């Protein structure tokens, strides 16, 4: 019966501990994911530096370590507490056997052996803390270097094609060696600190064998304590000591736990501080326009170091307009787009924008989520939002008819589709979502002129009436827009200059351009 009860208790403890790990991890990961994926935050955190670096590791490994160590250390502490409660009374009672003779007088110190056990554990724990404290910092350092190495390997893997085309394997090898060296260096420092701590933890364990005997010895030698009584006292002392040495025994794990807590906490604080910093500093204000237009009012865009990219821009883009933004490379066109999207806070002035649900951004390299092609085309809506025929028609319209049968195929579509095909997918998305405002940043850069004309004609056919703001270098683009804004560099920074609207209607211009390409070899 006793075996059955004990076995049941052990199984129940293991089960509860494992459940606790899962619940803790689930809760913490969800809290961090919610914080991280608030609108714009993941991008902005990426710009803030080290405090929120390596989100992958913090969300995965640090959360796992935190959950596992919290459950294990918590269960260990509970066990130690139960052991202490069970035996402290026994040791207190047995301590009365440890009597001393002092100038012929018999002296009894109440709970003498309990005080010795507490003093011994306090000294051991204090020394452990003093010697082992650097482990927290060293663990944090090691986890950061491990994350750097993993990120570097993933990056090489993602860029394997470019690396191979440049014959850059040797160079990558040298780079990765640096990351591996950094990990090994951090691990070596950690091993040194662990070895130093072992002097204390092992020494504490060995000395614990003799400490109770030494403590009770005066009573034994004075004849007030028999050998049998001394053995009982030592036995009870060891049980109490097993509970009190919890901190010494578990310190390496506690240091690991603490560094996981610090990494998770610094990530959380970085996310929360970001909002506060944006609220308290002078930043670009992005507000809803009451009429649903896009306006820039005294807009200055700066870099995070304070240098000005675009100076005091004022412009107004009304519904139905198609405006092209041109400017030299590095003049700040993409940054202006980021500012419109609310991603770029550095600067001042006001951007008034249409309702977010009316807007769709098309970057140069469209984001294709992991999963099947249907998910990629429907993004950011759920894959089952649009019916089969509508999705197939959108693909067909964008010259991707051959992929209509592959809608449910799971692949790394971002690697198997050419950049031009990926840009067509972005246009197919436009046809499905039908936004009233479209912001394009070099969204047709990988398409030939004919395909570009075909894609851009959605704004005169399927999405006629939609407002378009686009960035592009190619001169053919001007024909599809009603107006051009130029970002021009001056001594004070770049300024936004408006050019008068083009006289030719864009559809006609695109036809002229098409005919010209057909007729003139
Ligand atoms: N995350 C960033 N951190 C620091 N500087 C940045 C960042 N993003 C852009 N910049 C800087 O801002 C300036 C403008 O960059 P941006 O990408 O807006 O130029 P662009 O006009 O779109 O160039 P291109 O036509 O070549 O794409 C550049 O000097 C660039 O180095």
UniProtKB/TrEMBL annotation:
GO terms for cellular component: plasma membrane. Residues 294-517 form the ABC transporter domain. The keyword Cell inner membrane does not apply. The keyword Lipoprotein does not apply. GO terms for molecular function: ABC-type transporter activity; ATP binding; ATP hydrolysis activity. It comes from Microvirga aerophila. InterPro entries: AAA+_ATPase, ABC1_TM_dom, ABC1_TM_sf, ABC_transporter-like_ATP-bd, ABC_transporter-like_CS, ABC_transporter_sub-D, P-loop_NTPase. Pfam families: ABC_membrane_2 (PF06472), ABC_tran (PF00005). Residues 1-256 form the ABC transmembrane type-1 domain. It is found in: Cell membrane. It is a multi-pass membrane protein. Belongs to the ABC transporter superfamily. This is ABC transporter. It comes from the Bacteria. The chain crosses the membrane at residues 73-92, 112-132, 197-221. Keywords: ATP-binding, Membrane, Nucleotide-binding, Transmembrane, Transmembrane helix, Transport. Its main location: membrane.
């Amino acid at each position: 019966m006793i075996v059955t009860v004990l076995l049941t208790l052990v199984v129940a403890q293991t089960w509860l501990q494992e459940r606790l790990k899962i619940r803790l991890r689930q809760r913490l990961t969800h809290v961090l994911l919610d914080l991280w994926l608030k609108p714009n935050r993941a991008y902005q955190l990426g710009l803030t530096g080290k405090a929120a670096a390596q989100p992958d590791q913090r969300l995965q490994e640090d959360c796992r370590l935190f959950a596992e160590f919290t459950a294990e250390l918590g269960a260990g502490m509970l066990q130690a507490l139960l052991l202490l409660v069970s035996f402290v009374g026994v040791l207190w009672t047995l301590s009365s056997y440890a009597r001393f003779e002092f100038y012929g007088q018999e002296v009894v110190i109440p709970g003498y052996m309990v005080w010795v056990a507490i003093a011994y554990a306090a000294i051991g724990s204090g020394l452990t803390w003093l010697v082992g404290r650097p482990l927290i910092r060293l663990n944090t350092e090691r986890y950061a270097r491990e994350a750097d190495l993993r990120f570097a390997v993933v990056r090489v893997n993602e860029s394997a094609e470019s690396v191979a085309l440049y014959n850059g394997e040797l160079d990558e090898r040298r780079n990765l060696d640096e990351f591996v060296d950094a990990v090994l260096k951090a691990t070596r420092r950690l091993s040194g600190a662990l070895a130093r701590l072992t002097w204390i933890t092992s020494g504490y364990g060995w000395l614990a064998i003799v400490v109770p005997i030494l403590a009770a010895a005066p009573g034994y030698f004075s004849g007030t304590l028999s050998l049998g009584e001394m053995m009982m006292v030592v036995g009870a002392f060891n049980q109490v000591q097993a509970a009190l040495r919890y901190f010494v025994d578990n310190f390496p794990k506690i240091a690991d736990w603490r560094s996981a807590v610090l990494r998770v906490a610094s990530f959380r604080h970085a996310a929360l501080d970001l909002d506060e910093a944006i609220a308290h500093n002078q930043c670009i204000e992005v507000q809803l326009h009451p009429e649903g237009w896009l306006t820039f009012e005294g807009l200055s865009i700066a870099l995070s170091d304070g240098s000005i990219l675009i100076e005091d821009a004022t412009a107004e883009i009304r519904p139905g307009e198609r405006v092209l933004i041109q400017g030299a490379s590095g003049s700040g066109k993409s940054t202006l787009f980021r500012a419109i999207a609310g991603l770029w806070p550095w600067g001042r002035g006001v951007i008034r924008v249409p309702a977010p649900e009316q807007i769709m951004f098309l970057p140069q390299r469209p984001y294709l989520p992991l999963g099947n092609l249907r998910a990629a085309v429907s993004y950011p809506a759920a894959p089952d939002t649009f019916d089969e025929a509508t999705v197939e028609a959108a693909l067909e319209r964008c010259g991707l008819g051959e992929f209509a049968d592959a809608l449910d195929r799971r692949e790394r579509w971002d690697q198997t589709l050419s950049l031009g095909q990926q840009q067509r997918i972005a246009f197919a998305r436009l046809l499905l979502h039908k936004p009233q405002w479209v912001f394009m940043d070099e969204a047709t850069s990988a398409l030939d002129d004919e395909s570009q004309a075909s894609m851009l004609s959605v704004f005169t056919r399927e999405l006629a009436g939609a407002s378009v703001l686009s960035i592009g270098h190619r001169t053919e683009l001007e024909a599809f827009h009603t107006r051009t804004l130029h970002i021009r560099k001056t001594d004070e920074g770049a300024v936004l200059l408006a050019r008068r609207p083009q006289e030719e209607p864009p559809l006609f211009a695109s036809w002229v351009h098409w005919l010209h390409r057909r007729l003139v070899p």
